[in-house]
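Weekly structure sync, notes
Attendees: PL (lead), two postdocs, one rotation student
Agenda item 3: pending single-chain targets
PL asked that the sequence for the first pending target be pasted directly into the notes so everyone works from the same version. It is reproduced below exactly as submitted, 165 residues in total.
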Amino acid sequence: MDRYRGHLPGRLTAVDTSAEQPCFEHDLRFEADSISHRLSSRRSDVSRKRNLALLLARASGVRRLLFLDDDVAVPDRGDVRRATGGLDQGFTTVGLPVGQFPDHSVVCHAHRLAGGAQDGFIGAGALLVDPQRITSFFPDIYNEDWLFILDEVAAGAVATVGRAV
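Predicted structure, written out during the meeting:
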């Protein structure tokens, strides 16, 4: 968060969701978590953290919410400004494609190893959304971010700007 402080307009807020904060592990539960836990043994807190951010943003009237993973950077900070402009133009979601990222799915790795071209993709690792206009949530399953934006993609409400690494 410090790498963007002073370079972007607005307020930056960090919320500690570590194990030392027991309310995030036990008291704050989403219905989506209980459904997925019955179907899968996957245990990750990423969806919960992202849903918490959406909840707080929606409740407080925030119009621009940037999801940026701790292992992702936006080399040109102007890309974040341009992404906010996409929200102003009517898009509900603007992604910064993440290129050269080792976390592609197994299918993407196989495609690349077989000689296919693997381009960057957008996901919640570098994603700007308008929480007041998007009604989706992050289900606690693999590729939850792609499912989060699925309806927005179908509606033509997703744009891409710049890049992230």
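Discussion points:
- The chain has a mean pLDDT of 80.
- The longest strand covers residues 65-68.
Action: rotation student to compare against the earlier draft before next sync.
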